[in-house]
Amino acid sequence: MGHAIAQAARGLLNWRSLRWKIAALVAVASCAVALAVGVLVHQSTFERSMSLGRDRAFTALLLAVDDYRRTGSTPADSDPAQIPPVLLQQIRGTGQSSTWYDDRRPDTPWMWAAQHVGGEALAVQIDMGPEMRSLQALDRHIVMASLAVLTVLVPLAALAAELPNRRLRRVARTARRIAEGDLGARSKVRGRGGDEISDIAATVDSMADSLRDRLLAEQRFTADVAHELRTPLMGLVISAELLPESEATELVRDRVRVLRTLVEDLLEISRLDAGAERADRAPVPLSRVVGESVGRTGLQVRLKVTGDPVADTDARRLDRIIANLVANAHRHGRPPVEVNVDGTSIVVRDHGPGFPGELLADGPQRFRTGAAERGRGHGLGLTIALGQARVIGAGLTFANAPDGGAIATLHLRDYTRPEGPVALPRPR
User: Fold this and answer.
1) Cβ–Cβ under 8 Å, residues 337 and 326
2) What is the pTM of this model?
3) Helices marked H in 72-128 — which ranges?
4) Of 80, 127, 85, nearest to 107 (Cα)?
5) pLDDT tens digits, 12-40
6) Domain at 196-274, CATH from 3.90.960.10, 1.10.1040.50, 1.10.10.10, 1.10.287.130
7) Taking every annotated instance into account, which residue ranges of this chain make up the domain Histidine kinase (predicted)?
8) What is 305-349 written as a DSSP string?
9) What whole-number percentage of the chain has pLDDT above 90?
10) Which pLDDT belongs to residue 287?
């Protein structure tokens, strides 16, 4: 439960997720629309204010001209020193009345209107401050309204994106399970109208079905071949033993032993693939069991055991794993080969060229040694070791040492000692 909550929290805080990308896209689109609408409203309101200002200025100018013609008095604004030079130039050049918006002082804008009458330049000015303050208030209201809409729209967009995001995460989890070997995993994601996510989910499920069918066919083929070879192989073994002693006989017997080992490995792999193997767990003293396993290989190994660890595992299968790892280290690596037992972790290391990158990335594959410098072989030893580790519930990892050499680490289950003596089994 806590892991699920933590994973959900990481998903919410991941700004690269599809949810926040959709929310950001909605926010950008909303800002663009708000900016376009705001500019249009601002410009329209400004033009309307200018038009009203010019009308008021013309009306005041007509009244001033009429008063000048009746009384001969000029408005106080008609002082040539106060009239803007631009406006004076306009009325002198055209002889018509003209207006000019004076925003030289933004805090006190004016709308001027002027006309030549009887050789005199009559001018009036109208205060445009209220109109401009109203326009500024309108701009602020537009910005505040846009921000208020964004504060509601962005969370709603993130929530709306959660459903497809959840479906995509489910498809991704299914794909990861398939990549980890669970070919029975299915996303079962359905959507109305057959959208793109449903197509992706159906493709992943179809791929899993195809991989499962191919793997089952491969497993059946391996098992059938191994079983069919077993009977003629036993005949070869018996016939080789009946041959007279000679160098050629010894060579034939050696090749028959190699073939017998290969067939037995194929049979073991087929049983592991079929899931027919079951672990017989019991408390196992690792110092004794690992030491006996190493001794039975007949190979030179440096064994180091820290303490007196006891693991909950299957001694027979553990012996098989240790033997395969040691044999692989000698076959594909270089001496010295070291086996270190520390707690319930068993580390097998050689000093050769190390594991190939393909094995580190994809794990061991049957009939694939990975690189020529790793030596010859069928690629079955590590495959069997990994399969047996899964049967006993252990973890087997592969890595390369910084100073050279391959490292295989087996992590076993710890054993909690009960009170009183415990009878420890011997490997069979």
Assistant:
1) yes
2) 0.51
3) 85-94
4) 127
5) 556 667 777 888 888 888 889 889 999 99
6) 1.10.287.130
7) 224-416
8) EES--EEEE-HHHHHHHHHHHHHHHHHHS-SPPEEEEETTEEEEE
9) 9
10) 86
